[in-house]
């Protein structure tokens, strides 16, 4: 094979009369403008050189991760994907995509515009644009249905979920699954096609899968799919665009696709989703923990405590194939805990096959002997929330754990430094705060203590990702980031109820904002007695919530809390709750009034934003965008709303400051006094995003 030139983003090579164009924009070959231009030039050059076929492959990890997101929302620089597709169509012989690793979004659209696709075994292929609030705007919504039929295409595009090369072969948008070197396989495919004189029909010219499509069946499928994405615009436009592939000629369909894309690309929702996409990546950059920080390889883990959290945490390790020892104080609790893990797997929505459940259970070893942690590389403690108990457990871990093992606590509120001091190795101690249910919620707050080493943080992040979590490093304080912020919402909920709201009003507003579940229904799920115990310990009161607990209303576990629950666990407003609330208003001398939905939303979100600002001031969170990641992955905040700090930026911090001051005066809640950081940013005309940019290492270096 001979290298013909040294083009920057596309390498051009030839093997006889088959030319090879290699995408070379590390690390993931995003289709930046310069690459697109070189691809067009490469196709042209191949045609002029008399090439019989062209193979397009990716260098490095994958074929292509698609569009360069930093180009979104900026003026379009030609050539676009459509121009490349035109160039492919103009080429006299077959243009074959050789795909390995992954082809996502525009990367897959590029491949769909080719005459044929050869994919390496295990390659992932997806049109994930919907997850960024947009749609595949490079012809994907028009070509995919023509290749695989309307309903399979609709499902791929509306869900954004990947399929494997093997599935794509069955669906019909991959022509061959290859083993070994993808470039060699794609060249061999092209050579065979040439030898056989095979005539390929481009997707745009195919009608066999779309002609006479059953539109009623299609619309029924759309309705079923959209039910799951309440409030989101992108899935709606995705479906409309795929439908155009059934009712319009190809070129007109492309225009429809473009128009629907343009509606989305600068929408609030797409901005929010892109914000979260970048925020998740930013959160992986931790001050003082540079890339390449050595980590402890976690070949074996241990969990102390087999209760609600310990069991869920052990499930995460076993599901990821990491052996885990579960240590309990109580033999009966141990057995029950492990049985609960099995039961949880069996009744989960995507229950794994029985064989897989047995494999996972075989990775879990239960014991009541603390010495069993001796061969663990990471120990996570999840015993009762009691500092005395935790100190005792950590002193024991110090005796039994191997030197260099990482020791983590799942505490929600206790001081990590104090826990670390119970050992002689505080550098190896940190918090790993999982969210309930631990096997499902993706957020993992990693709590850095005063002495925690960079190696311990890097290990916790690495293992967190390995078990499917989204780790966010936070500082040590009561409640850390998420619970500390939601904690400030509680007093406003009490006040809203006393002033005129009912539980269903508050939950309705939050659920129509997009939360999976309103705060009061969530309280019923977690148990109202837990909050009451915390208030007792802190000497605070919540007259209405306390009255509910006094009336035996602990939430779902007693069949009644803020709501009454029927035998299907469906919630219903309960006259007894209304009576308790009205009596409390009267007792407090409050004349109830009608409260608007806007006010409800403000009074629930503003206290969290205000506390978020204090958290930033104190350095408990590194960036405002980290806080948004915490809420999306730990608190059911809809990603398409971008998180509380993003919300505040969109409202504008001056407006946020004014509203906070107004509600502070009206409700006499000192928590609502605008935080100094909000005062400062409001005065400067700044934003949380601007603060993040100013603080980021890249900005500092540049
Ligand atoms: P839990 O009461 O369900 O479980 C605690 C378990 O620890 C019990 O089974 C108990 O027998 C065992 N245990 C107590 N002392 C022990 C010891 N010395 N050695 C071994 N085992 C011992 O409690 P939980 O809800 O799982 O909470 C555990 C921890 O996780 C607490 O620190 C809590 O604050 C934290 N947490 C809880 C949640 C939640 O929503 N429940 C969320 C995040 C963090």
From TrEMBL:
Pathway the protein takes part in: Lipid metabolism; fatty acid beta-oxidation
CDD domains per record: crotonase-like
Matching InterPro entries: 3-OHacyl-CoA_DH_NAD-bd, 3HC_DH_C, 6-PGluconate_DH-like_C_sf, ClpP/crotonase-like_dom_sf, Enoyl-CoA_hyd/isom_CS, Enoyl-CoA_hydra/iso, NAD(P)-bd_dom_sf
Compartment list: Peroxisome
Reactions this protein catalyses: a (3S)-3-hydroxyacyl-CoA + NAD(+) = a 3-oxoacyl-CoA + NADH + H(+)
Domain 3-hydroxyacyl-CoA dehydrogenase NAD binding: 300-476
Annotated keywords: Fatty acid metabolism, Isomerase, Lipid degradation, Lipid metabolism, Lyase, Multifunctional enzyme, NAD, Oxidoreductase, Peroxisome
Main location (coarse class): other
Pfam families on file: 3HCDH, 3HCDH_N, ECH_1
Residue stretches making up the 3-hydroxyacyl-CoA dehydrogenase C-terminal domain: 479-565, 600-685
Subunit structure, interactors included: Monomer.
Stated family: In the N-terminal section; belongs to the enoyl-CoA hydratase/isomerase family. Belongs to the enoyl-CoA hydratase/isomerase family.
Name of the protein in question: Enoyl-CoA hydratase/isomerase family protein
Taxonomic path: Bacteria, Pseudomonadati, Pseudomonadota, Alphaproteobacteria, Acetobacterales
